[in-house]
Amino acid sequence: MRLKVLALALIVSISAIQPALSASQIFDEQWQPQPSASTSGPIYGFRFQETQFENGQLSYAQSSKSLTDIVECDTANLSLCPSGNRNIYIVLPPCEIMVSEICIESLEFKDKSTGDFLPANFLRTVGTKTLNASEVTGTPFGGAVSVWKNPLPGSDESIEYGIGVGLMYVPDLSQQAKNKNEKLSVLSMQATVTPVQKVLGKYAPAVRRMVNGKLIGGYLDSTETINRGVLDCVWQEIGICAKKASFPEDARLKLIIRVPSEVNGWIHGRFKDPDIKIEKYANSINKLTVTSDVAVIPSSGYLGDYKDLTAEMKQALDSSGVRVRATGSNGESANVSASDKRAFSYLSAFAPVLSDRAADLKTRWTVLSEIERTNASCSSQVQGIKGVVSTNAMIYEGVAPTFDGTSLNYKVGGLHFNPDNTPFLGSYDLLMRSEVARCYYGFSSAPISADVSVTSSNGTKQIATTVTSEKDGWIKLGAYGFQFSNPTIKVTLKQASAIPTKTSTTQMKITCIKGKVIKTVSGTNPKCPTGYKVR
């Protein structure tokens, strides 16, 4: 038996990672870096930030020439928008509202005692602003974040769950120059489930603040709202701040949504041990089911005096548009997405002041998808979702693994220790369509197997729990519980190449008889005619 072998490598920078949610862990969902009491000059710094839906809790249509020149548009007629970058953000409503076929079908929680998934109870949507579906732009009905209740017996009654599933629509680049009313295409999708607790007070819903018909500052609180910076509201309602809370221990969720069939490419985000199912719901609509555990994510950040900033720190801040100066400012802090490639520069620059230890742990369940618009051979041959990749590293590449012709490479990074100085343990999950793997590697339809190994930077193989399987058209790979500096996770895909059975070419003769009639039959596998028998 001959083996075809190719490698899949995950390159980890600095260190990373944490296993399942534990009752002994303490989570501070509102953690923010704080400057030391000794600071005297302008204060600068950063924090790593997870994808949330604070800035996408409402649907909108807009045209923007710059970050400060944004105009709201009429969804049905983009020709009324000034020239610029036109886009529409659609927040999916629950299907039970019956306003759109592009919607949230259900959120379910796994009952660990029975193994069954129980549907969450839909409570309400946040806010009243909506966008009607538009035939002109090809966009569906847009609503706002929906609020749900955990159905499991004994669940915390004070916790509600916000679901924000957003689709960003932009002009198709091939049609953008033709006219202002072209149909838009899906650029990206994000789906976030966030547990919250109500905090009562003088709060009001977020609004899009307009001056002379132009939007300033994106989604902002109304002037009635107080304490947003302290409580970090996920959203606001009249008299209510929805404050981030933690998921229950060992939570496993199932989110079922109906999305346009053009949602394709690779899914990434914050979840663990995922399963995915894609079914056709209607013309141009798929039903996407994502089932996974909640991820435990470390976070870090820094605030300090201008005089303590190194050149590398200033360069990292500059990449985020932070103007670092010694005078004329009180300072500024950058929110850096954990999946932004600039996060690696921040981690490298600020590592000396981070003590190689995470500042806090957070619980997250987030699914992100960037739509593929490439004509690469494998991408064009395989339709729909190609794969799913997730990690609980502090920072990671928010793109698909890079195929270099031999292996798929994926980069993550973080710090060595938890806030309590215990080692931070790693998890990495990869789901890949079997036909994608076969396309990349030139495998046949025979079963594919895999070996998973974790090797440290000095060449020493580390012990990690690994999972490999192929089922229902998906290859599932995973590595858990690893911890050390600069490891490489290597998944070696294998397939047995069938050895063709040798076919005899030797000519044989037999004599066949039927009564007094005798015939000679020749061939590699001669047989007597009907009614004859071998003599």
Offer a concise description of the structure.
With 535 residues, this protein is mostly beta strands. It is built from five helices and 37 strands.
- What is the total tally of β strands? 37
- Helix- and strand-based class? mainly beta
Which residues form runs of ≥5 with pLDDT under 50? 1-24, 216-231, 498-504
Distance between the termini: 41 Å
Give the mean pLDDT. 78
Instruction: Determine Rg (CA atoms, Å).
Output: 29 Å
Give helix % range: under 10%
Q: What can you tell me about this protein's structure?
A:
7% of the residues lie in helices and 46% in strands. With 535 residues, it is mostly beta strands. The protein folds into 3 domains: 174 residues, no CATH class; 207 residues, no CATH class; 31 residues, no CATH class. The strands form 6 sheets. It has a 17-stranded mixed β-sheet that branches. A hairpin with a 5-residue loop joins β30 and β31. α2 packs antiparallel against α3. The two termini are 41 Å apart.
